[in-house]
Amino acid sequence: MIMTRRERAWIAVKRGAGALRDRWFPEPASAPLLSQKAVAGPVPWVIAIMTALTVVAAAGGLALGSIARTAEADLAGGVTVQIAGPAQAETRKQASAAVDALRNLPGVTDVRRLPDAEREALLRPWLGDAAMEDGEPGEDSLLVLPELIELRLAADAQDTGIESIREALAEPAPDATVSADMEWLAPLEGAISALQWLAVALVALLVTATAASVLLASRSALAANHDTIEIMHLLGAHDRQVAQMFQKAAGLSAAAGGAAGFAVAQATIIALGRRFADLGPGNTAAGLHWYDWIALALIPIAGVALAAFTARITVLATLRRMP
């Protein structure tokens, strides 16, 4: 058969490509006794889902703790004095006397009397624009804005500062009400603590579910490859060698599923952080520090170790009961 020059060149290219493929990507001498897919089963998908849920739950718990610490640091030592009840002139008189008394009080580091515009801005969301416009504060107005004084106590005066402030204001401002900024945070701390324990419980449940899924997948793979394992035993393979094959398959499957699950969880956390961006520096995404992200990154790694350990223990225990 006479071939043209182009056909001979094409055959030479194909032979060269085949030679390179055989050199750099040789085909295995024989197929493995137990394939990765037959051993792993649905483990990668289960690990991906469990990892994503675990990372999101853990991130929520860490972010809540960070938010609580940030709020506590911002409000520590803060005290608010409110003067409300008497007429506008009497309220202003008591507020002025209270500011003078507080500035001379030991342990008080900062005193600030809120101006009218700032007090109106605080009340406007509650009373509405119409009420604020119809009742401009003044001598003849029925709307009397309470006087608000913000002050901050030194660290060594926070325990006894509230009582000393009340005693100092008893005479110059008898209508004053003193409250620590940390008082309203106590119920919030209880709620945050409960949510954190809920996150811990969810993580524990997800870890248990992950181990159970690997256990069931390993038992199913053992039952499906029972004849192959018997042949391996006849050829001299030990239980530890068989278990090592299952352990490797479970570890690789968990690594693939964990990486995918962590990527999904990271995208979810960032998306939630953007949704809560209006909350300020304590929102979900900003509330996670670099060490929190390191702790979250360890979750899929721990998932790989858990899957491999569970598969090995399950296979060894099952093989010991086999005849």
UniProtKB/TrEMBL annotation:
GO terms for biological process: cell division. The chain crosses the membrane at residues 45-68, 194-217, 249-273, 293-319. The keyword Transferase does not apply. Keywords: Membrane, Transmembrane, Transmembrane helix. The keyword Transmembrane helix applies. One of its GO terms (cellular component) is plasma membrane. This is Cell division protein. It comes from Croceicoccus pelagius.
